[in-house]
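Tutorial, part two.
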Amino acid sequence: MLALPLRRPQPLDFIEQGALAVDQSRLTSLSTFQARNGIWLAYRYYHSTQDESNKTILIVHGSSAQLIQMTELANALAASGLTAIVLDIRGHGASGQRGDIAYIRQLNYDLEDLLIELRRTDPNQKFILVGTSLGGGFFTHISTTAVGQAFERFILLAPFLGPSTPTSGASNKAWASVNLPRIIGITIRSQFKVTLGQSLPVIAFANGAKTKRYVTSLYSYRLLFSFGPYFNWKKTITALAQSAKKYL
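Running the prediction step on this input gives:
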């Protein structure tokens, strides 16, 4: 686990250009809520500019990103009459320590705590989850959990469903570098309830130095295995099919 370092991929120019091109003039004020472990997590509210609806769209970013990358989508939804909330997933942006969380699946509890916070002002709110890329993959397993039952719909935008899926091509290899021996070693230890090593970085993303303030370039083992889909893509598809039955 320790001897083989995590190799950082070459920065991708178009990723850097995209991160730097985000129009921050349309950002709303930053809000926070306190998760059950006492850490404050960040989100932004985009209120509907038309008649108020009791439906709220909760938007989650993709790998390495943060909520400001979802600004245009949130503004477009607000202009169409829907209230939107964009969230910095713990380990990203202004939510906790970048690149790490305390334990595997902590993000599930964060989502539950956010819903509790939002329902204090309006107990009748109805929620729809929108996730892009890894955020979409994250919702594939959220949809099968208890907290997933609180959402009316899940909308997955180009979801990442796992490294071995037919939709995961060469571009993903350029985007991220994985320390597979370290992942295997930590996974074996985890099967025996040994959590030592789960804070080690296991994946690096192809971000340039100029984008450091906007991105999270390293994920620990416990963040990687919490933010995203089941890594068995067939299990992911089966889980999706089961959770989709309640909407039919």
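The chain has a mean pLDDT of 90. In part three we will examine how such features are distributed along the chain.
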